[in-house]
Amino acid sequence: MQRRFIFLFNPRSGVQKGKPLQQLIEERCQKEKVEFSIEHSRADADYSFLIEKIKTAAVTDVIIAGGDGTISTILAAIYHLPVNIGIIPRGSGNGLAFAAGIPKTIDKAFDIIFNGSAQRVDAFEINGKFSCMLSGIGFDAKVAHDFDRQSKRGLMKYIQLTLQNITSIKTYPFTISSPEVNIELDAYFISIANSNQFGNQFTIAPKASLQDGLLDIVAVEKANLLALIVRVIWHIRFGTFTTDFANRNGITYFQSKELTITNKENAPLHIDGDGKEGATAFHIKVIPSAYSLLMP
């Protein structure tokens, strides 16, 4: 079957090897002899127009050049359509791309787009809102909200905001209910992970998989902060999270297909790195085999 592509990207997303991204796309598609069109990412995050375009033009592949937030927003509009999704990592963290084994180098990302394997991967919903990678409630969401307000973005700005917020870090009371657990806890943050990392190869859920039909829940609880940071780094580095709830040592970890988190003090929420409106309760469930992702 003849492949037909749509590429979506921010026209200001930068250059590589002295060439604008659009030129690199055009050159590679001409080399591969595939039909393609180019759309720019939208400030209003409304990608509903893609649905009719994909159907009318018989598009087979939608390639997104951007970060996790952009990918998540576009996927939310089209993941139910029979197209392959490709990624050219252009964000601050690129957590989904790295979890899928997609390198940041554009030429290598192109190689996967044209020669990789289309594999079904999971996603999930939080109160009906789509998430493709990792969402969170609490401290990391506060940083995400602050990051969204910055005119200058990037990894260093994110690190700066994290360090600024650490001085006022606080815990929030949560109740987590699922078939596996029913627990009350005070936590700095809760991560709901479909992929194994925040981004930039920083792993938060070492056992998480894009294709296992499960969500990995990691809650970092109230404890001596310095000791807790050391424990978190150790667990992240060596993947030693445990589901032994009697000996959690400041970290609760479990896997589930569906859960509810009661958020009594309205801790902030982020979805795939973008700050979102919070709620006093979140119903979360996996969407198994949600879409087809081009992977190595």
Automatic annotation (TrEMBL):
Entry keyword set: ATP-binding, Kinase, Lipid biosynthesis, Lipid metabolism, Magnesium, Metal-binding, Nucleotide-binding, Phospholipid biosynthesis, Phospholipid metabolism, Transferase
Protein name stated in the entry: YegS/Rv2252/BmrU family lipid kinase
Keyword check for Magnesium: yes
Cofactor: Mg(2+)
Keyword Transferase set for record: yes
Residue ranges occupied by any DAGKc domain in the UniProt entry: 1-130
Protein species of origin: Lacibacter cauensis
InterPro entries per UniProt: ATP-NAD_kinase_N (IPR017438), Diacylglycerol/lipid_kinase (IPR005218), Diacylglycerol_kinase_cat_dom (IPR001206), Lipid_Phosphate_FormReg (IPR050187), NAD/diacylglycerol_kinase_sf (IPR016064), YegS/DAGK_C (IPR045540)
Alphabetical list of SUPFAM superfamilies matching this protein: NAD kinase/diacylglycerol kinase-like
Gene Ontology MF annotations: ATP binding; kinase activity; metal ion binding
Record-level GO cellular component terms: plasma membrane
GO biological process, one term: phospholipid biosynthetic process
